[in-house]
User: Which sequence fits this backbone?
């Protein structure tokens, strides 16, 4: 599930870490493949989240990105790599999303670019999110012969059902204002950094215990969905990825042509 394209592996870290007055800032920094959820990026993100979870000086995590894309979803160039599939395939993606949801620190997303497919699940797993005017969103799976299976667990409990139905089925692109209206993001803002200031200021005032227990209350329903549905949805996703239709859809995408079913 991706809009990512093939890319050479960069030498530097794909997840950059910084700290700003109680906020650990994690920056997805693989712009050449549109911050796709490659095996390496997922591994680095797990490490950074674990470090933030154990940091006594961290009250919240800010997840942001370089380049014009927040996250394009899974890396199609690794689709046939068994080792990569273990990290970033359906079960690997479910594990990453659950890690964010269960993290005892609030996770805030700052989005100023495009979000597609599995990147939407990453966004949905965050507790709060601010999207700027350059952000766009689309559930592209149905156009590739796939379905937004695993990412539904953090998204469907939070999104307007009618909006989810429309955008899951049509694959239409929509903007930050619509993302906020549907519940996909917390707010749309012309200046995301200014909009984040009061949010981060509030989180800095929270006690570690108070933040962790308050987050547990608002994520309980989402975690119940993970407990109930992870195995079945991961199986669905794996089955679809292995299908002839999905192979045609992904090949057509990489070749920049319409798939055979488009008339």
Assistant:
């Amino acid at each position: 599930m991706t809009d990512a394209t093939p890319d050479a592996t960069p030498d530097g870290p794909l997840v950059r870490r910084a700290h700003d007055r109680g906020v650990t800032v994690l920056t997805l920094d693989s712009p050449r493949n549109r911050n796709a959820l490659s095996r390496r990026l997922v591994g680095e993100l797990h490490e950074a989240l674990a470090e933030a979870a154990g940091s006594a000086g961290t009250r919240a995590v800010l997840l942001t990105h370089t380049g014009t894309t927040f996250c394009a979803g899974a890396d199609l160039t690794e689709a046939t790599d068994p080792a990569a599939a273990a990290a970033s395939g359906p079960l690997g993606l479910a594990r990453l999303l659950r890690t964010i949801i269960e993290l005892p620190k609030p996770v805030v997303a700052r989005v100023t670019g495009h979000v597609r497919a599995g990147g939407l699940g990453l966004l949905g797993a965050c507790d709060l999110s601010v999207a700027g005017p350059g952000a766009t969103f689309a559930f592209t799976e149905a156009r590739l012969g796939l379905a937004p299976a695993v990412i539904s667990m953090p998204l469907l409990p939070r999104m307007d059902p009618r909006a989810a139905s429309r955008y899951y089925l049509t694959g239409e692109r929509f903007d930050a204002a619509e993302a906020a209206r549907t519940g996909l993001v917390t707010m749309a803002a012309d200046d995301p950094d200014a909009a984040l200031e009061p949010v981060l200021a509030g989180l800095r005032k929270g006690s570690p215990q108070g933040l962790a227990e308050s987050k547990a209350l608002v994520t309980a329903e989402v975690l119940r969905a993970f407990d109930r549905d992870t195995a079945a949805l991961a199986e669905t996703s794996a089955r679809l990825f292995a299908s002839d239709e999905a192979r045609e859809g992904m090949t057509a995408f990489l070749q920049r042509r319409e798939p055979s079913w488009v008339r």
